[in-house]
Amino acid sequence: MVVPEGDKGGGKDKKRDKHEEVKTCPECGSKCLVHDYGRAEIFCADCGLVIAENIVDPGPEWRAFDSEQMSKRARTGAPLTYRIHDKGLSTLTSWDSPAQGQYNLKKWEQRTHIANTAERSFVFALSEIERMASALKLPMNVREAASMLYRRAMKKHLIRGRSIEGITSAILYITCRQYGVPRTLEEVSGVSRVGQKEISRAYRFLLRELDIKVSPASPVDFVPRFCSMLGLGGDIEAKAIEIIKRASEKELTNGRGPIGIAAAAIYIAAILNGEHRTQKEVSDVTGVTEVTIRNRYKELSEQLDIEVLL
Ligand SMILES: [Zn+2]
User: How many whole angstroms from 50 Cα to the centroid of ligand 1?
Assistant: First the structure.
């Protein structure tokens, strides 16, 4: 669902990124950046963030990269369930109470039409936030914060000309981070009606336009959820967190995606506690490739002198 561009037309992408110098992902600090000339984008292989768009193709020999492969992402989503939210609708329909019998009917109809359109998209946005938040099992405070942020974006006319699905997904991604319950871009796109790249674009757009600063997610924040998804208990969770803390003291986490670090630490902790999970199992839950898990796990176990016996 796309809100038609209004006459106020605020919120256009103003800046073009200086991608030439970009060597690390501004989001997670990873150095694994993929130049996708097919789509004229640079994106992070660790967290999926689109870092630059409209990049220039240096020549046909570089074009071998298969963009299709990388962007295949199931656009799934549960059927629409409209939950009526009247909270906040009043802010949309804040027309002056017309003095009795004085108002112009035509004008009133026009306003009603606009209000209805805005109202419909607002209801749709809130229902999207609810639907995705519940699929992601997010606590109530995060849902509330997401609705608030959506309202803020709406007041600044940032929604016009953009897809509500993309904006609401990005908003959930932001609020999860702000509330210390980060979800990966992959997880958000898994419940969204739009793909990872669109969410990633909307995310960067909102951060810029609303001047929001989000600090990079800590690997530790991902550990409890990933562990419970893997059926691993509190002892392994604690062990994984300890590994991450030691790794960050030795600065082994610099330039590494937090999700990959969390995945590797959990992988190691599970083995140490005699509950082996395969790299495939850890990969399925975390969305981190097996190759990355293997690399991080080798780095961590070697650098921290952890003997991992398979
Ligand atoms: Zn990244």
Answer: 9
Residue 5: is its pLDDT beyond 60?
A: no
Write the burial class of residue 244 (CB in 10 Å: 0-12 exposed, 13-18 middle, 19+ buried).
Answer: buried
Q: What's 131's domain CATH number?
A: 1.10.472.10
Distance of CA 27 from the midpoint of ligand 1 (Å): 5
What is the CA(63)–ligand 1 centre distance, in A?
Answer: 22
Same domain, 139 and 183: yes
Contact 232, 192 (CB under 8 A): no
The predicted structure's pLDDT at residue 43: 83
Global pTM value = 0.69
Residues 183 and 226 in one domain: no
Give the orientation angle of helix 140-155 with respect to helix 164-178, to 10 degrees: 130
Q: Which structural domain range is residue 149 located in?
A: 89-94+105-209
